[in-house]
Specification:
Length: 281
Amino acid sequence: MSQSFGKNLKITIFGSSHQEYMGVVMDNMEIGFEIDMEKLDQFMQRRAPGKSKFTTKRKESDKIDFISGVRDNKIISKTITAIIKNENYKSKDYENLNDIPRPSHADYTSFIKYGNEMDMNGGGPFSGRLTAPFCLAGGIAKQILEEKNIKISSRIKNIGGIEDKNIDLANPPMDELEKISQKEIPVLDEKKEKEIRNLLEKVKKDGDSIGGICQVFGENIPKGLGDPIFDSFEAKISHLSYGIPALRAVSFGLGLDAMKMKGSQHNDQFEIKNGQVKTIT
């Protein structure tokens, strides 16, 4: 079983939902880079359990402890290792899953593949809890990219069919997206935010859950990334994204809406803007 990804920057996730620790090993790091720990902590708190009444009731601080490769916030080794302590887990709540696997979870599949020796409390290594070390690695990578003037921002585009306002995909408002990043419901349209909040409160009251769409934007991405067929840029992004439990689809540009368009409409024409080759749409 492999929990590693990447070539130029290789990350290995370890631990599971109800083990004492989980964490990440990052190989081929940039020695001398200084990590902004306050910024990294803010990034981690965006996904930390217990920060929103609309997510899991589990409460975790998600504080990072670098045990190798970082000193005084500076990266001092090509390989760094960081751990996060699991504090608020209740394994007894999962004892019945030894006999009754949950639908739409990895309980049954894991038993068939690994037997009953795999620690599947809380979903084990298949749990969404493992997105914490994901974010730890991503938060550091994001800072390194920003130093190279490469910006990554995101928002909630849709929850339960309630759609945030449209964005010009060729010119996303990166500053606005950064401003909303700390909001409980990071959408641009305040009216839609209220609608989503009302929907989530109703779904929670019903003891249910609901899905949505997260939209991610990259600015100043280097041209020519990826290789033909299986190692294309989109293939790599998709492969990594499906490491997130419960993800159902990845799309680029207009995604599935492209099937409603003729080729002449969908073509993304080039233009020269400020001496640079850009796409128009």
